Amino acid sequence: MDKITTTNINFKSRKAVVYVETKNPVDQLIAKWFSDNNIYRLEFKSKAWSYISKKRNALFAERINKLLKLAPDQKVTFSYTAGCSCGCSPGFLIKQNGRNIPRISINGQLFDSIWVDIDSADLVSNIQEYIIKANKKLSTELIANGLSNDEDMINSMQLMA
């Protein structure tokens, strides 16, 4: 069950940020894929990594929207710089009419920092499907960048099946 774990208010903040606890099966699965495929070593920006990240963020944004019972005109969007401009605190922003809202009302109280625990066990099968597609994208990228050959791609496709 999804739940709000911590709330905070800092009146200096100009945007409401929702942080997701990272000890969840989806993030662990994605981190394993990232590490197993040495994405951090690639000398090009991987579209496969972007694909998985976007899918994860879309699934979590939908769950955050339901958990916080947001208005129909409010939208949850992921931002690497949600909590800090250097990117050390990625999170989700709540937007209304294209602008960040400064506070979120929860049980009649206003907050600008909310931590949520997403029960993502039921999302693992979705992520596994996305990983299969990402593996195919990554194989294509490796060949296009001269880091793999067709034989390697065939072998990796057999492992994915």
Tell me about this structure.
The protein is of the alpha+beta class. The protein has one domain (3-160). Helices cover 41% and strands 22% of the residues. The chain has helices spanning 25-36, 47-68, 124-144, 150-160; strands at residues 3-8, 17-20, 74-79, 91-96, 99-100, 104-106, 109-111, 113-117. Strands 1, 2, 3, 4, 5 and 8 form a 6-stranded mixed β-sheet that branches. It has a two-stranded antiparallel ribbon with strand order 6-7. Strand 4 (91-96) and strand 5 (99-100) form a beta hairpin. Helix 3 packs antiparallel against helix 4 (150-160). The longest helix is centred in the middle third of the chain and has 22 residues, at 47-68. It is elongated and about 55 Å long. The two termini are 32 Å apart.
How far is the first residue's CA from the last residue's CA?
Answer: 32 Å
Average of per-residue pLDDT values = 87
Element pattern in H and E:
EEHHEEEEEEHH
Classify the beta-strand content into a percent band: 15-25%
Q: Please report the total strand number as a whole number.
A: 8
Given helix and strand content, the structural type is alpha+beta
Note the total helix count.
Answer: 4
Radius of gyration from the alpha-carbon trace, in angstroms = 18 Å
- Unreliable parts: 156-161
Largest sheet: 6 strands, mixed
What is the global morphology?
elongated
Domain count:
1
Helix content: 40-55%
